Amino acid sequence: MNIYNWQAQDYRKTICKFLSSKEIISQEDWIIDSTHFNRETSETIQAGYSVWARPVLALIKKSETFEKIVSKPASWLIEDIKFKKGINKKPHIRGYLFRHLFFNPISWCLGNLKLLVSIKKHKQVVAANKR
């Protein structure tokens, strides 16, 4: 497995990369998570994740308690991915529910909001250039 390729992708899954660097989740689990995120998650959800992940990562770096809190759902999500990929035989209900009730909907909403803001900014630039 080429670790360099995965290190180049760490900007996409910053929270799990950080948890992996602290050995809270394994490097292998981070790669499984990053691969799934990059290949099977919509661009809208990826954009939304990028909106909320930076401030959450800043809080994780400041608080070990917050780090422990965030590491639980992160590991749940990875276990859900492992079941989807056939690595685990047993479904991970908390991971499934967290992904479909919180992670994806929040990321999707923020991704769409980010898109709307960028469209509005683009229209303003186009309008300013026409003057």
List the helices and strands and how they pair.
Elements (H helix, E strand, L loop, with lengths): L2 H5 L6 H8 L5 H14 L2 H20 L1 H21 L8 H38 L1
Helix pairs in contact: 2-3, 3-5, 4-5, 4-6, 5-6
Question: How would you describe this protein?
Answer:
With 131 residues, this protein is mainly alpha-helical. It is 81% helix and 0% strand. The termini are far apart.
What's the short version?
By secondary structure, the protein is mainly α.
Query: What is the succession of H and E elements?
Result: HHHHHH
Kindly report the average pLDDT value: 88
Rg on CA atoms, Å: 17 Å
**Poorly predicted runs:** none
Counting copies of identical and different chains, the oligomeric state is single chain
The number of helices is 6
Question: What labels would you give this structure?
Answer:
131 residues; mainly alpha
